[in-house]
Fold this sequence. Notes:
Number of strands: 10
Number of domains: 2
Order of helices and strands: HEEEHEEEHHHEEEEHHHH
Number of helices: 9
Strand order of the largest sheet: 1-2-3-5-4
Largest sheet: 5 strands, antiparallel
Strand content: 5-15%
CATH class of the largest domain: Alpha Beta
Distance between the termini: 41 Å
Helix content: 25-40%
CATH superfamily of the largest domain: Aminoglycoside phosphotransferase (APH), C-terminal lobe
CATH topology of the largest domain: Aminoglycoside 3'-phosphotransferase, Chain: A, domain 2
CATH architecture of the largest domain: Alpha-Beta Complex
Amino acid sequence: MTSQTPALDTALVRRLLGEQFPQWARLPLRRVEPGGSDHVIHRLGDALAVRLPRGEWAAGQAEKEARWLPRLAPHLPLAVPAPVAVGRPAHGYPWHWSVARWLDGGTPAGPAVLTDLSAEAARLAGFLSALQALPTAPGLAPGAHNDHLGAPLAGRDAGTRARIAAVGSAFDTRALTALWDAAVHAPAHHGPPVWFHGDLHTGNLLAVDGRLTAVIDFGGLGAGDPACDLVIAWTLLDAPARAVLRTALGVDDATWLRGRGWALATGLNAYSHYAATDPRIARATRHQIEAALGDPL
């Protein structure tokens, strides 16, 4: 957020709604905390949510979700957000923003929330299989989305090696380097690009009564190598559930290894940026990194 960007507060959301969507301007509005790393979120009435990108890195997500989610949603076995409207930049706020249906009742999924990790691994595999089976479209080339998603891991090589060097005694840097070397040199994805979610972690999965019910935040949606979505295997699942996910998806050795590379790279990125200031992220990213290291090469 630049110095010219107004505070992303409830007053700004109310002004944007009043000008662009007056039919919703009188509904109750409250900020959702903790929100997300990419968006400030407000609940609008009982049935809607307003999402404002926090910065340039999240710009364009509103238009992407509005274009693609209505086409993908009918074919997916878990609920996904239903975009209702896309707002324009105004009142000093420089990016498009969105209004979507509120997915009611769900809590962020985590090992302590889910009743049976192996059963949920199978449910998650069903979602990913359905997503990957849908036809893609021109203009969704690998690497054309956030942070090299869907593209070869080589695009993250320099940054990941720098973070390995920076973690010092917090982790076994030799083991980190060995895993990264193996992953970055694994055989590349062959065949046509397939859909990926792009940010499949526990905060973007919702559960009700111990079962997965919804997948949210498709800002990283794209087409390419689906290995980036395997990060969830090392953030949510234990070893037996990981085996269920891999078998149900029919993942080969090279794709699985690239998935471990994505888990390592994204874990190190989050650890480097947030671990010193956010104990929750420090615990989660340490678990992710250590889980990825724990499987044999």
